[in-house]
Amino acid sequence: MTAYIVRRLLYAIPILIGVNLITFALFFIVNTPDDMARIHLGAKHVTAEAIERWKREHGYDKPLFYNGEAAGVARLTDTLFVQKSLRLFVFDFGQADDGRDIGREIRERMWPSLAIALPTLLTGLAVYISFALLLVFFRATYLDLAGVVLCVVLMSISGLFYVIGGQYLLGKLWNLVPISGYQPGLDAVKFLVLPVLVGVVSGIGESTRFYRTLFLEEMHKDYVRTARAKGLAESVVLFRHVLGNAMIPILTGVVVVIPRLFLGSLIVESFFGIPGLGSYTIDAIAAQDFAIVRAMVFLGSVLYILGLLLTDLSYTLVDPRVRLE
Amino acid sequence: MRAWIVLLTLLLAACGGPLNNPYAPDEAAQNVLFSNFGPDRPKHLDPARSYSENEIVFTGQIYEPPLQYHYLRRPYVLEPLTAAEMPRVRYYDASGRELPSDAPAEAIAYTTYDIRIKPGIRYQPHPCFALDAQGRPRYVPIAPAELERVRRLADFRETGSRELVAADYVYQIKRLANPRLNSPIYGLMSEYIVGLKEYGQRLEAVVKDLPREAYVDLERYPLAGAQVIDRYTYRITIRGKYPQFIYWLAMPFFAPVPPEAERFYSQPGMAERNLTLDWQPVGTGPFYLAENDPNRVMILRRNPHYHDDFYPAEGEPGDAEAGLTRDAGRRLPLLDAAVYTLEKEDIPEWAKFLQGYYDASGITSDTFDQAIRIGPDGRPDLSPEMRARDIRLSTAVRTSIWYVGFNMLDPVVGGTSERARKLRQALSIALDYEEFISIFLNGRGIPAQGPLPPGIFGHREGEAGINPVVYRWQGGRAVRRDLTEARRLLAEAGYPDGREAASGRPLTLFFDTMASGPEAKSRLDWYRKQFAKLGIQLVIRATDYNRFQDKMRKGNAQIFEWGWNADYPDPENFLFLLYGPNRKAGTNGENAANYANPEYDRLFRQMKDMDNGPERQRVIDAMVDILRHDAPWVFAYHPQSYGLRHAWVANVKPNLMANNTLKYRSVEPALRVAYQAHWNRPVWWPLGVMLIVAAAAMVPAVLAYRRRLSATAKDRA
After folding, report:
1. Which residue segment(s) compose the domain that B534 sits in?
2. CB-nearest partner of A174 from B43, B686, B701
3. Chain B residues with CB inside 8 Å of A95's CB?
4. pLDDT > 70? residue B10
5. Is residue B551 part of a domain?
6. Which residues of B426-449 are buried (b: 16+ CB within 10 A; e: fewer)?
């Protein structure tokens, strides 16, 4: 398995270089270093000299990919792409254009994101799987039908509606939780109740239907009939045998997102005032801060690759037939 | 289930006060103002760099330039802040001979400003001032091991302070030229402050080979235009006569920065901790930045070393009746702290204001109808819901203008020909900004009659102030001229019914804008409709900020919309937007319309050096008349700002020029606590109902479950 992991990690390097190259190309097709300078220098009293100074100070005065004025290998290395990209591979993200350290910013902001995402994921999984198993238990009855209709209704509602509705009901009308805000440490709990609740409720429709479909597929398999023939209670058949055998598709969906939980959610964090990473990339694109954009895209790629690797590894835990070589 | 509810209740009760209180339980009872910032966080808090409104909210309270605007008096008037008296201004000719104060501007080669500051002013507590037993800086140099345990500024156990001296002001003026800082006013100031341009070039050579964070000792490099006279006096020398320079002395760009702070922050390891002057300011102002988490909260606390400063006793008529002089003579600041929370969205911000968790709020388009009722006389007033909450309203016309500009280089709408001028005049009449203000601004704006907003010298009210090309005076008010007049002008321009007289082809014009997306669509449709009233087809060319700026710089736009916010309350700051040599195309100036009129330019040069008075008013009137006739802009509107505040907040008077108004604010915490408790009583019964409904829904499920377990195979079949 070690060889497999090493091989997968080595595969990641060209993927990351490719992602970085595409990010770089896309960013600079849309924006020039002059545009970036103007955004950062503001709308008033901006001179051509100030733009040149800004580019020089931030290292954007070099050619993008090929430096004809340099000699030897420096023609390729003394370029914007190489100078701005190489450090990423040792997770040195440098400074944002407003001078703040990107690595520190990510380290500080990932915890609030995780504080929402992890309870939402775990509570959501428990709720969705239980609800789906319940529907499967009552399959082909009015309860199942009512549950599916409820799921479709919940799926049809915009995610933003849950956020605003939750804030209106629990925060404004009933005054039970703060509408938005965040405090570090244990004080965070009262701010997390509402976003976690909203996150779980908004996912009920889609996730429950997905899991119900998985479980229904399993219900028609031979081992279920055998379990019933042995005289096992239906609850035991469902929770021990069906759930166990449905774990591979569940894990495929869940484990892959675990590393990316750090990256947060744009809408939830914006509306609930959570100082997470959710809006970091979007704000950076709006501000044309390439340093942050490339760091976050790189980090997202790394976490995605990590998620896929973890998913593969998790198969070995739930299915003894799977071997990674 | 019951255990969960009990646990949840206990958890929530442990938070103290109303359950939805986003602050610590006892904070509302303190002498603290609660506000918010966002959606964007401040980018720079260094006074040499900061220029945005969301930054000056903080820098204005922390840094103290030598002058400030009087809080209550109108029109806006400058007064000393850290200066002992107003700067002493002297004029000199090219040979260095002093000239009388009424010397003609052409004869003046240099102007000096001698500024004497009050002795005894001290900086906020800061580790950069901490000294060891030998009197050496405690944290410069700092050992890596000691820095290891530092995560934020408060982790430095020892702090110190020192007296403000004139050299700190000179140091900051030198910083404006530091290439590392990219000060937004360096380009402008280097045209005026003697030697600043050369100073910047010299520094560029100095810093070229230094690491980015390395300390550059600016005290080693003298600057001719900024010199220390004695411990408390410094002199700024500028080229020629630039009377508006004095307004810059009321901006944080000219506030003092202690060299110790820059030396302290330039040490290795500081920048990685976000410990920079850009994020952790050091000033002498009434407040210091005690907590700076721009992703969540920024807290200003009272500077314990703040110098003598007292609430003004006099204002303009009506201030005393409005209770604005009740705190006259009280020592400033009146607050102990101000807590600013990041709010990215309007909905939670508004809801928290209504709950009493923010002391003040603006009004968005979405909340306007809830907050404001327009009375029969057309005046805005609070809605019954706001009145029931004892909320107060403040309004003020901003010292800004929005306009639709015509590119004077364009062959169709530009130029000085009669044909193009009449086309522009026709469009000025057709664009109905009364309607625009009503639809898109909820009435929060006044139609502009010229480039100068109310509150700026030169603006005229009433009949004398109307734009006769677009309005006529009728029934004691300005009434927009009829569309028939616009059509007549259009026909005279050679476009009867919006068609080219020669070819019969419909006239098609192009409108460049940065506005895009669903929110802008209705506004852009409105523009199409306005042009269509004259039979003119309007093509909208919406682009992003960069492309738009690029078009403007190259002079490729035809018609565009833009705005300007005053830097200082002088007509020069608006009229220069149409000064010929200041054109955008080619010179990257602020004259976006690329307008050039020799007579206007001559009058501008005359006006900019004059003192306010009848003679200057006469020149301004002549300039404004030229603009109305040539119509390089459609003067659109001056926006109005509406602000709401709770009953417990006092001393609020909109001052659109002053940056340091927080020190005048006061709050009544007991009233706030009472209102918050009253407005935020928890409502539990809906949760009970939901539990009962959930339990009721479980009954058929449980019955079905039991029935299924006891069912036989035959039953199932």
Report:
1. 400-641
2. B686
3. 271
4. no
5. yes
6. bbbbbbbbeebbeeebbbbbbbbb
